[in-house]
Amino acid sequence: MKKGTGVFLVLALALAAILVAGCGGAKGTADSKQAPEKIIAKFSHVAAPSTPKGLAAQKFAELVKERTNGRVEIQVFPSSQLYGDKDEFEALQANNVQFIAPSAGKLISFDQRFQIGDMPFLFKDNQGASRFWDSEAGKKLMKSLESQGMVGLTSWPNGMRQFMNSKKELRKPEDFKGLKFRVPAGGVLVDIFQALGAGAVTLPFSEVYPALQQKVVDGTIATFDNIENEKYAEVLNYLTVANVNNLSYIVIANKKFWEGLPSDLRGTIEQCLKEATEYERQLADKLDQESLAKLKQKIKVYELNPEERQAFVQAMQPVWAKYEPVIGKDLFEEAQKLNK
Ligand code: LMR
């Protein structure tokens, strides 16, 4: 064999070895272009699978699987199985989970203005809240999350929050004196109870039932749907229908993950989220009423009459005065305009 031929053969063999090794990698080969890598995203939330949020997250996952022909899989983890209120934001920002859907008020540490979601007697119902979150003002507020590595995509309502407790029937603001309530987040919700002469403790959602059972707190503020799904009627005796404020979730994605999706896939996923949102919003009203009917069989339900409710509206004046400058007059006016 000629000397030059030997060198050529060694080089050719080395090149072949590099190519074979390269084919084992996931990216950049002819093979991986034909069968692109599957994308797996996790959607973590704290509510039960049978709530509007649980069912809509599942629907979103199903639609995405179907429309992307299985190329994108969204794995849903309900009931704080993967992350709870304490760690879901950190997990989202670290991209350990790609979607979460906390109540708007829980975003307080990122932007105080999200507390508008917890304001008492501002949003009339689910529709009024959705009109606000769908508006330019609502979208702009969601956009503020982008500077913190998150993208606010849409809102999912889950009814109006009501008062529940183990001690007595609550009909007037004075009835709250000395009682202690669990709240989902600090700020507005704490001040609502303070204005009523009651105490408030922020606890993660997964810790509410044991806290009620062990009488760490006397009561809570929650929607019919969460009261029913979390079985609070087992440990509490009185429910006052006051329609205090609205519970709406903001569906949030990790920004890097969201923007890193190939644009055709992102478009498809956006469309699936739009459909899941329509489904959630219809379901929320239906399940809200079904849950109330079930609760009436299990617990004492008292519905405030208009005058009684007015006394609570009056009692909330200090809360409005405190939060108008924090949240901004512009957002308040927009919400009021959309909730006449
Ligand atoms: C709560 O903490 O009370 C709720 O926000 C939980 C939920 O996600 O419905």
SSE blueprint:
Layout: H1 3-23, H2 30-34, E1 39-44, H3 52-67, E2 72-77, H4 88-93, E3 99-100, H5 126-134, H6 136-143, E4 150-165, E5 180-183, H7 188-195, E6 199-202, H8 208-213, E7 219-223, H9 224-229, E8 238-241, E9 246-254, H10 255-260, H11 263-298, E10 300-303, H12 306-315, H13 317-327, H14 329-337
Parallel strand pairs: 1-2, 1-3, 5-6, 5-7, 8-10
Antiparallel strand pairs: 3-9, 4-7, 4-8, 4-9
Helix pairs in contact: 3-11
The chain binds (2S)-2-hydroxybutanedioic acid.
(2S)-2-hydroxybutanedioic acid binds at residues 46-47, 103, 158, 184, 205, 222, 226.
Defining key terms:
single chain, 340 residues, alpha/beta, D-Maltodextrin-Binding Protein, domain 2, 14 helices, 18% strand, disordered N terminus, binds (2S)-2-hydroxybutanedioic acid
